[in-house]
Amino acid sequence: MSYVKEIYDNLQKKHPYETEFLEAAKRILDSLSPIVEANEDLYRKNALLERFVEPERIISFRVPWTDDNGVNHVNLGYRVQFNSAIGPYKGGLRFHPSVNQSILKFLGLEQILKNSLTGLPIGGGKGGSDFDPHGRSDAEVMRFCQSFMTELYKYIGKDVDVPAGDIGVGGREVAYLYGQYKRITNLYEGVLTGKGLSFGGSLARPEATGYGLVYITAEMVKAAGKDLAGKRVCVSGSGNVAQYAIQKLQQLGAKPVTCSDSNGYVYDPDGIKLDVLMDIKQVRRGRVKEYADQVPGAQYVDGKRPWGVACDIALPCATQNEINGADAKALLDNGCWCVAEGANMPSDSDAIDAYLAAKILFMPAKAANAGGVAVSALEMSQNSQRLSWTFDEVDGKLHDIMKNIYKNVADAAKRYGHEGNFVVGANIAGFEKVANAMIAQGLV
User: What is this structure's pTM?
Assistant: First the structure.
């Protein structure tokens, strides 16, 4: 039996109910087979895979809080500190009813490789709660965040674990969490990223994931002998990632023609008008349907995602598993030859298999959307130095990081006999650095 299969079989026995984690672990382990087979004796001797797939630590706790009507509630809080071989744990906090240990372990495992790909000294972690901030008042969110941090603060620190935001945790929540951490510890340090600019945040952080996605897409397209300029692009989502991906696409001469939310999508054959979209989403907090009401020629399609629209490039920027096998087939049938993931794992296994079988350009999320965590790490650097870099400085560093990620991913795929397979390349390029560090540091 192969070493990879042994590890996965043992995971199934130990964690049979953690379906999301097992799915992610299987795909990652399978893609690591080339590097594992080349180093099997060394990895077995050091119990490397056994350690790699298990978190160093999982903290779980109850979070009691009181709503505006005086009713008491108790939610569950988690922090999965997965791997610190190359730096302090780094990864977002997610506040959403779907949060459980399996999902956070899957996200944390992905985060190890994503963080390694940035080339910056950050390990992998993830956390959050099954609390839903939607529809809650600012006061309720503040009380929840303060209760959450009253337990979490014991396990984090600028050189230990540096959380950030994720789904349900934006600037408001990060600020409340940071305020409570400072209140309890009396420390003014870079223990959270995604902070406001007035208390240690970084310029270009809101833009980072969307810009980084387009930068790596441009590198991938250029290496294939093509140009981003003039290409039709289907973008899903309408939050920060989608908005700033659309902005950067337009700056580089491409034509993004769609955006979406959970209700449906908008198709604008003349190209999305970013000022209109930002006004709807950032100012009025509205739905994308309003775009079609304002822009002549734009069409709103209710209850569907934009993957049936003809395009050259697709950038899914909305949510997990938003592209299934049938959606992938529709994209391919309509001429799509490039997919890069702005959201976390937006393509399911069937969709990824379809991309790989068709041999289109496909950059998985851990590489394509690493711009966000890269700029979070740059925020950590600025905090440590008590400096604030300009927007252009941060953007320039982000551009260089994304170019290097593409190069390292492509090189790793080629070295291990899978040229052009960026799924294998991304996992191996991220894993190699972590594996070497784990072996060097001994059996810990």
Answer: 0.94
